[in-house]
Specification:
Blueprint (H helix, E strand, L loop, with lengths): L1 E4 L5 E8 L18 E8 L2 E10 L5 E8 L2 E3 L4 E3 L4 E11 L16 E8 L4 E3 L5 E8 L7 E10 L6 E13 L8 E5 L2 H7 L4 H13 L5 E2 L9 H10 L4 E5 L15 H20 L6 E4 L9 H17 L5 E3 L7 H6 L4 E2 L8 H9 L3 E6 L18 H12 L3 E4 L46 E3 L2 E3 L2 H23 L2 H8 L13 H16 L5
């Protein structure tokens, strides 16, 4: 950590922190005083981040703060990691008002105040006295970059103070991770209806969000709740960018004679399949069908029995018509081979804490894929990425996914912008304190004390604004690629599963220490770059 001089001679504290730690505005600077240095390691094709923390003293605010980035140089190779591959964002804040825990779940609620989350693209910013402000720095190693250690500096400038150099050392490993969505199938709902509403129907902006979600976050960018397939031209465009799965459709619900969670309507599903036949035929003709799946019966309970019977009838219609398209559900169907076959299912997606490894292995051996999902549940000791959870959990969960051998991962919404006061695009230059609500609120029920569920993206006036939670989700997906590569190199999935163990060993067993994850990542990288013994 370094100490500079702000206006009036008050000390400015500057230090570097891991991207896996959520730093609050009131957090003090650490006691040690060392020159701020950032050290990163990453594969070719990977993004990796760190934080630069600024805390002015009790004098005046720090004005016109900005970071200057330059090329990093690998002196042994004579190659450069260009400055265009290094970006920085001011970390913004969202307000938490709710403090009372109204439900039975044993989770610690947040104190009211400002919490860091959005990543604001700005040219300069201001920091108030005695306020800890994070700057999020991300380095990308292009796929063709020579391996080696690249060094240089980022320079911190602000009015009335000496410029301060932050040393940066990025070691690029000699292996490449897969582009796009990689090897884990994901179904994170990007709700284009909310995008169209706030951006006044701008289809170019809808595509920009899809590209951001796929290119920068490694997630398949489609709305899993649509009752019709995506246009084939858009599917082909996204497949070329690395998309590895898409929903052919969500089966139409019976919203008349049923109540939420709605069961599919067999009559409406039959009509839906007739209507979609030409589109599905074209998807098949273009070779896209292997990436597709049909989703229906979201969270339909076993009782009353007539509702789950509707699920079974609708699923039978689907499989008679399209036996080669995988059918997946989150309905509460018993996790038994014969029962799932009777429902014509290819994949079951139970809630995270409703799964069991040995039972899932038996289903997989019978040819039934096991997905999983989180939403506002589960609660501790299970992982989640609500604002209420430690930031690290957004990354470690993907080690758990690999260890548990889940076939795919679903999440109900990246951008549920449904709060009535969330009706304006965000101007990042207007300041870090967003007038944007990410608290779950449904009629004053027990959900009102949860924050961030289904709300990980923010609508910027010039396009998508990411978050520190999404950055950790991306990093977790990149960690998943390390594990996949290790299993592939060793010819055994158990090699990757064993490599998970210091970080994750079960559904609720995972490290709470970012250093444990960092060290294990490095150990895996050494295995991946080791030359085979003769």
């Amino acid at each position: 950590m370094a100490q500079g001089e702000g206006k009036g001679g008050d000390p400015l504290r500057v230090w570097v922190e891991s991207s896996m730690v959520r730093v609050l505005p009131g957090d003090p600077a650490p006691p040690e005083r060392v020159r701020p240095t950032a050290r990163l390691t990453l594969a070719k094709g990977e993004y990796e981040s760190f934080q630069v923390l600024l805390r002015p003293g009790a004098g005046r605010p720090l004005e016109n703060v900005r970071l200057e980035v330059n090329d990093l140089i690998c002196h042994t190779k004579g190659s450069r990691l260009r400055r265009e591959q290094i970006e920085w964002h001011q970390v913004g804040f969202v307000r938490v008002h709710e403090t009372e825990q109204k439900g039975p779940a044993p989770i610690p609620w947040l104190e009211p105040g400002w919490y860091p989350d959005p990543l604001l693209p700005v040219e300069q910013f201001r920091v108030e006295p005695e306020f800890t402000q994070s700057v999020w720095v991300t380095v990308h190693a292009p796929r063709g970059l020579p391996a080696g250690t690249y060094t240089g500096a980022i320079t911190l400038h602000a009015d009335g103070m000496k410029s301060l150099r932050i040393l940066l050392r990025a070691t690029v490993h000699d292996f490449v991770i897969a582009p796009g969505a990689g090897h884990l199938r994901t179904a994170f709902a990007l709700r284009d209806n909310f995008i169209r509403h706030l951006y006044k129907g701008d289809e170019a902006m809808v595509r920009a969000y899809r590209d951001y979600v796929l290119d920068r976050l490694r997630l398949n960018p489609w709305d899993i709740w649509h009752d019709a397939p995506p246009p084939v031209e858009e599917l082909e465009r996204l497949r070329a960018r690395g998309m590895n799965a898409f929903p052919v459709c969500y089966l139409k619900d019976d919203t008349v004679s049923s109540e939420w969670p709605f069961a599919p309507s067999p009559k409406a599903v039959a009509e839906q399949l007739d209507t979609l036949a030409p589109a599905i035929q074209e998807i098949e003709r273009r070779g896209l069908l292997p990436l597709g799946y049909i989703f229906g019966g979201d969270e339909v309970p076993r009782e009353p029995p007539e509702r789950i019977a509707q699920v079974k009838e609708a699923f039978a219609l689907v499989k008679r018509r399209y036996p080669n398209i995988p059918l997946m559900t989150t309905a509460h169907i018993p996790q038994e081979v014969e029962t799932l076959r009777a429902y014509h299912l290819d994949a079951l997606c139970p809630m995270w804490d409703w799964t069991d490894f040995e039972r899932a292995e038996g289903l997989r051996k019978a040819g039934i894929r096991i997905w999983t999902y989180i939403s506002l549940q589960p609660y501790p000791p299970y992982p989640n990425w609500r604002l209420d959870n430690p930031l690290l959990e957004a990354r470690t969960i993907f080690w758990q996914i690999y260890h548990q051998k889940f076939d795919a991962f679903l999440y109900w919404g990246l951008n549920i912008w449904d709060r009535p006061d969330n009706d304006q695009l965000i101007d990042p230059a207007a300041g870090p304190f967003l007038k944007w609500n990410i608290t779950t609120e449904r009629g004053g029920t027990a959900l009102g004390w949860l924050h961030g569920d289904g709300r990980l993206l923010y609508p910027g006036k010039n396009g998508p604004i990411g978050s520190i939670r999404l950055a950790n989700i991306r990093d977790g997906l990149e960690d998943y690629e390390y594990l996949w590569l290790l299993s592939h190199k060793m010819g055994d999935v158990e090699a990757g599963r064993q490599a998970c163990l210091p970080v994750a060993s079960g559904l609720k067993e995972f490290t709470r220490d970012p250093e444990v994850l960092r060290v294990q990542r490095e150990a895996i990288a050494r295995q991946l770059t080791a030359k085979p013994r003769r």
